[in-house]
Amino acid sequence: MKIFCVGRNYSEHAKELGNTIPENPVIFCKPDTALLRNGDPFYLPDFSKDVHHEIELVIRIHKTGKKIQEQFAANYFNEIGLGIDFTARDIQSQLKVKGLPWELAKGFDGSAPLGNFVPYTAKGINFSLKKNDLLVQVGNSKDMIFSFEQIVSFVSQYFTLKVGDLIYTGTPAGVGKVAIGDKLQGYLEQELMLSCEVK
Ligand code: ZN
């Protein structure tokens, strides 16, 4: 099982980190040891002093495919859920300056909490993240720079997609630091889909 993530897929978030709008999707991977399921707690890693939450819509691949054309891409995923792309922002900033890959900042153990899935039906899905009952991130899939179909098509030009592969599709604005004791709750429309406590 592979976990793909898209960086800079919402223009307001790209701006808040001082990044330009990309021409192609920015893709990186996390290993399967990054996954946190069933509401398991997230343990803050000791190598970072600035771990950020990034709430993201996640689609699950349910059909093997490679070099998928955009107009057929919707046939390759049928479920949607929420995940958090925990990011050690201090490490990522150092890596960016040196032009190095981001894995140490984004692929560490527990960096990918994943909630429940529901069938994918509509376009324009609202999602949000509450930290300690305060709304901190709000997004809608219609504001993505690259659509689910464009992402699936793009990724499949390079990597064969297999059943169960996950794609974290980018975060809207409002990312911020987490601390021990924080309770994170992700909502798809009004439905609680993901809970994660920081320890
Ligand atoms: Zn992200």
Summed up:
With 199 residues, the chain is α+β, with helices and mostly antiparallel strands. Helices cover 16% and strands 36% of the residues. The chain is built from four helices and 14 strands.
Task: Explain the overall architecture.
There is one protein chain. The protein is α+β, with helices and mostly antiparallel strands and 199 residues long. It has a single domain, classed as Fumarylacetoacetate hydrolase, domain 2 (Alpha-Beta Complex). It has helices at 11-16, 89-98, 103-106, 148-158; strands spanning 3-7, 26-30, 35-36, 51-53, 55-61, 77-84, 87-88, 112-119, 126-131, 134-140, 166-168, 176-177, 183-188, 191-197. The strands form 3 sheets. It has a 7-stranded mixed β-sheet, with helices on one face. Strands 10-9-13-14 form a 4-stranded antiparallel β-sheet, with no helix packed on it. A 3-stranded antiparallel β-sheet has the order 7-4-12. Strand 13 and strand 14 (191-197) form a beta hairpin. The mean pLDDT is 96. The structure holds zinc ion. Zinc ion (ZN) binds at residues 5, 7, 54, 56, 85, 170-171.
